[in-house]
Amino acid sequence: MKQKNRLAILLIFAALMPLSTIAQDSSKVTFNSGADIMSRYVWRGTDFGASPSIQPTISLAACNFTFGVWGAFATNNFSQAQETDLFLTYTWNDKVDITITDYFFPNETPGVFNNYFEYNDTLTGHIFEGTIKWKGTEDIPLSLLVAANVYGADTRHANGNLFYSTYLELCYSGTCGNTNYDCRSARFIFAHIFPLAIFKRLSDDTLDC
C-alpha cells in the first residue's frame, strides 16, 4: 500500500510542477504537465474504480514524437483502480498517430504480478498495446482508432499464445451551437483482460454521445 501511495503522490506532484516550452528555429521541444480531477474514470466504456479519479500527466514532444507518463488514481482508496502508463506517439502529417502504450496497474493483491521491473512475457503485470489512429479532416470529421495488445499480461489461449485483444473505435466530431461533441461507436474483438474488468466478444456496438 505504501508503495502505491508513494507512486501516486510522486506522479501527481511532478505533474503539477510548472514546466516550460523551448523553441529554437525549426526545432521545438515542448514539455507539458498537468492533472485532471474526473468524477469517474471511464475508459472504453468501463468505469474503473466507481469513484472520482485524479489523473496526472507529464509529456515531452519533439520532431513529431511525444513521450509521456499518465496516471489514474481512484480517490475512494488506493487499493484498486490505480494505473500508471508510459506512451510514445509518432504523428505523421498531422493526420495519423501511431502509439505504443505500456499499461501497468499497481495491485497488492496476493498472487498478482506487481513487480514494475518484471518484463518477462509470462510473468509481467505490464500490457503493451499498439495503436494507430486516423484523425480525420475538416471535410470528413471522422476518426478511426485500432488498438491491439501485443505483449504481456493479455488474455492467453490454452496453449499460452496471446489473444492479441483488439479494440476498434469510430468517432464523429461535430458542433452544436458553441458546444463540441463526439459520437463514438466502439467494439472489442477477442477477450480483453485488465485487472478490474474482463471484456468478452461484444455482439453489439456501443454508442456514446
3D architecture notes:
By secondary structure, this protein is mostly beta strands. The chain has one domain (about 1-209): Porin. The chain is built from one helix and 15 strands; from the N terminus they run αβββββββββββββββ. An eleven-stranded antiparallel beta sheet has the order 1-2-5-6-7-8-9-10-11-12-15, with helices on one face. Strands 3-4 form a two-stranded antiparallel sheet. Strand 7 and strand 8 (about 95-105) form a beta hairpin. The chain is globular and about 50 Å long. It starts with a helix and ends with a strand.
Helix content: under 10%
CATH class: Mainly Beta
What is the count of DSSP helices, taking H or I runs of 4+ residues? 1
Q: How much of the sequence is in beta strands?
A: over 45%
Lay out the secondary structure.
Elements: H1 2-16, E1 21-24, E2 27-38, E3 42-43, E4 46-47, E5 53-62, E6 65-74, E7 82-92, E8 96-104, E9 127-134, E10 142-152, E11 166-176, E12 179-189, E13 192-194, E14 197-199, E15 206-208
Antiparallel strand pairs: 1-2, 2-5, 3-4, 5-6, 6-7, 7-8, 8-9, 9-10, 10-11, 11-12, 12-15, 13-14
Task: Give the key terms.
single chain; 209 residues; mainly beta; Porin; 11-stranded antiparallel β-sheet; two-stranded antiparallel ribbon; 53% strand; disordered C terminus
